[in-house]
Amino acid sequence: MDIRFRKGGMWFLKSTGQSRYFLPDASSNFTHFRHVLVTALVLCLTSNILPAQFDSILVVDLSYEDVSGEYILQDLSKRHSLRFSYSEIDLPQHVTFEYAGSLYSAIDALMDKLRLEHRWIAKNIVLREGVVYGKRVKGYVIDQDTKTPLVGATISVLTANGEKGASTDVRGRFELPRLEVGRYDIRFDYLGYQQVQRNQVLVKSGKELVLNVGMAVSSTLSIEIL
User: Fold this and answer.
1) Strands 196-203, 137-143: parallel, antiparallel or unpaired by DSSP?
2) CB 201 within 8 A of CB 183
3) Whether residue 146 is found in the same domain as residue 125
4) Which of 56, 72, 98, 121 can bridge 104 by disulfide, Cβ–Cβ 3.0-4.6 Å?
5) Contacts of 145 (CB under 8 A, 6+ apart)
6) Lowest-pLDDT range of 111-115, 124-128, 192-196
7) Domain with 172 in it: what CATH number?
8) 141 or 34: whose pLDDT is higher?
9) What is the 3-state secondary structure (H, E, C) of the chain?
């Protein structure tokens, strides 16, 4: 006579007068397989994250003086097993850069210095040219005859990302949002005054641009009849 019973997740088979045998529990095997599978999946998913996390706590002391941007990237690649991916980027030839801190923060600071945008993918760093902004464009809008400030005059500039603008305060002063380096047509409007437009205004990265504009009273008045 065979007696079959379960104990501790295993099935046992006992035959009268014979040795005891046991059979594995199918559900136990499946549970073990599931745990192994989940562990393997977690390791695969984190394998591309952990290197960047380790880099974030790695402390470095970098010092470069009057070297090319390409030299710095190559040196960092060798010293810290990094890989920079980029193409058609004009790297500066004369760079002085010093930084002490985490490698992750050092890369951020270096990219700001080189005016590049970057993205970490494990220990690969993808580079592309960043947006270069010019200095602020500001100034005053006044009546060209009386020299009094024109409060609420609107200033508009058309950019690649749409129209940006500003208006004058009680002193006739305005300041435009930051613009990328380049040339722009800037328009000035005020009710009852002739429109003024400054064409091909050059916005530079190194010098603040001041525009003081005098506006003339319009010689024609539009009357709306209700």
Assistant:
1) unpaired
2) yes
3) no
4) 56
5) 216, 217
6) 111-115
7) 2.60.40.1120
8) 141
9) CEEEEEECCEEEEEECCCCEEEEECHHHHHHHHHHHHHHHHHHHHHCCCHHHHHHHHCEEEEEEEEECHHHHHHHHHHHHCCEEECCCCCCCCCEEEEEEEEHHHHHHHHHHHHCEEEEEECCEEEEEECCCECCCEEEEEEECCCCCECCCCEEEEEECCEEEEEECCCCCEEECCCCECEEEEEEEECCCECCEEEEEEEECCCCCEEEEEEECECCCCCCCCC
Note the pLDDT of residue 204.
84
Mean of pLDDT values over 182-207: 91
Q: Are residues 151 and 194 in the same domain?
A: yes
CATH of the domain at 84: 3.55.50.30
- What pLDDT band is residue 6 in, cutting at 50, 70 and 90? low
Q: By residue range, what is the domain housing residue 37?
A: 2-46
Q: Which of 39, 21, 20, 19 is nearest to 31 (CA)?
A: 39
CA 121 to chain centre: 14
Domain assignment present for 222:
no
Return the percentage of the chain with pLDDT > 70, whole number.
Answer: 71
Contact 165/171 with Cβ under 8 angstroms?
no
